[in-house]
Amino acid sequence: MKALFDWLDNRTGYRRLVHEALNENVPGGARWRYVWGSTLTFAFVMQVITGCVLWMAYNPSNQTAWESVYYIQHEMWGGWLLRGIHHYTAQFMTLLLVLHLMQVVIDGAYKAPREVNFWTGIALLMLVMALSLTGYLLPWDQKGFWASKVATSISAVTPVIGADLQKLIIGGTEYGHHTLSRFFALHAGVLPGLIILLIVGHVYLFRRHGLTAKQPRRNRDVPFWPDQVFCDVVACLAVLAAVVFLTFWTHGAELGSPADPAEQYEAARPEWYFMFLFELLKYFPASKTFLGLNLEVWGAMILPGLMVGLIVAMPLVGNWKLGHRFNLGVLALGLGFFGVFTWLAYAKDGANASFQVAKVAADRQAERVVELARLKGIPATGALTLLREDPLTQGPKLFAQHCASCHRFDGHDGLGNPVKDPASAPDLKGFATREWLTGFLDPEKIISAHYYGGTKFAKSSKMVRFVQKDVAGYGADQKAMLVKVLKALSAEAALPVQVVADTADAAVITAGKALLAHEDMRCTECHKFHNTDEDADAPNLTGYGSRDWLAAFIGNPAHERFYGERNDRMPAFAEEKTLDGQAIGLLTDWLRGDWVRAEDAAKTASP
Amino acid sequence: MHDPSPTEATNPPRRNFLKQTITAILSAVVGIVPGLAGLLVIFDPIKRKSAAPGGALLVTRFAGLPADGVPRRFQVFADRVDAWNTYKNIAVGAVYLRRGQDNHVTALNASCPHAGCSVSYSGEKGHYLCPCHDSLFSLDGTIANTSSPSPRALDALEVEVRNENEVWVKFRNFQPGHKEKLPVV
Lengths: 607, 185
Fold this sequence. Notes:
heterodimer, A: mainly alpha, two-stranded antiparallel ribbon, 25 helices, 4 strands, elongated, B: alpha+beta, six-stranded antiparallel β-sheet, three-stranded antiparallel β-sheet
């Protein structure tokens, strides 16, 4: 064994290298305050390793970026762990960079002859920030998409070259395939390559000038190994433990729903360490100008540029008698500014009700798209298609936009927002279910706001008169018959949520159907029900509430199959081409509670 | 490596040894953990199974396959899952079908059992030729040249004729390079 190492040493001289590396002099003895550089190197190596593995599974394009990250996060062995480690290590890197900078400035380690080393460090800080910015977009979820869009739009306000600069950054005029390819090439190739070069230079210069000891020196000098290595390794272990803990605690990094340029995203926010810039921009509206430049240029470029400039100038300022104190002041001011503005940003979001609602909605949609991807697989057009064709996702939006000016859904507009004006048409939550129909046929309820209260039928309609006179006077027998009729009518809808009840009550439903058609119940005096009665001109109850019936009704309620000329105010959505067939189908399915559910799939899978 | 370092001069050697050992172990832990997290993901493909085993697929009808015993090439369409994507009815491979006078149909997987290239049928010479390494196969798929690098004949597939004229093939891929016909799993 020794012979082999001797041979290797003879050919490579590795022993001297190891010796050099480990015997670096630590003036004044090992100290915890010197660990930051090592933890950063460790974090960077961790990012390179986890990043390369993520690279093996990631696919940068409009239709595959989110999808491949979904696959990593939810389908691949340990994918969530790997992604979580990469994500949280990135957060820690930013934090460690700030700590490293603080230590260097406080200890005066930036002063001559170490200026160049300080500047390479600042360049590294900038490159790591660029890594964060580019990495944030890669999952191509709503959060990353909209936050990056804001960042790149800001580049467009750059005087003179703004428009071209933005095109260069995003690889075209719009966000798309090339935006991802560019960001990915920067994130996984160009930036890490530059960082490696600069780290080599940074460490070389550090070795050249030696460690700046914190004064006064506590102990006599020691070599790097083992005392300082021990401190460094324990610090790295602490970083690793924190990263792994956070990953397990949150079950990995968040993945929002896929990027949708057509869908507003009110919860768009940058990563926490850019939140202070996000907040800062609010005070610099692009609508105003100062010294001929619009305020956004000042807020997004000149001011942050000045901050960086002050940091870069530290070694030069440090030569001045009061320079070090000035630099400490700059550092404290910068950190204070960062802290205050970060706090302001979060405090405002915390107090912003519509932001909170948007966040909850975004989380729900993110869960739904994962559920759909698992149940149905993702089509070649991407996961967005799953959401676009999902009644549970689209139904509430369509309802809020087209129906909620008159109707309500469980008292709200479908999306959960309250509506100011009182309802002027029935509440459609549970439409055609037994409960809904029971309430409708209740003399107490039929002209309440929940049903016909806001419509013209409340004042004059045969149906209301029938319920308020006939039904109100029903005896026990007739009431029992009505229950059967309602079950039969509700069964016409074949609602997925009522399958079990409908199957169990098959006999009652058959009896109810016969009763409904019988003249004693008086339904068929006005309504058709599996018959062709020319005189019956109230809505046809054949297939009442079924997909076909409801879609046709939404398409044209004034059709003779439904209200005919007596239709109140409801628009004919298909006839007037307000909604296309797909939208009406989505709305219909949502109202009927007809969408793919994980529970149903689980039931069919295990009989 | 054996110069007396300041540490050794001041600290008792035992404490120094302990610290060195602990530091070395911790360094190893810190170095290994990130790699371990990646290993799981790298080995994820091991657990993936081939989507191929499925029922027979409708490839053509008799109208598209004359009863002259001449092989004709057909694409096979099926549903496929490719990582996160689910595709409906896409081309997943090709087969050569032959129908004799008695309406008996035989099917051969068009992929060469040597290294997986796609063989082509030459009507003039009446055999299949693999363009990659010159394997020759006769009409029934058996090896036709002694210098053939292919270890076995072209892979025959199960055929069913349904409704008098529909040709259904149980499409399978087999591992190239082996003497035995081992399905891809």
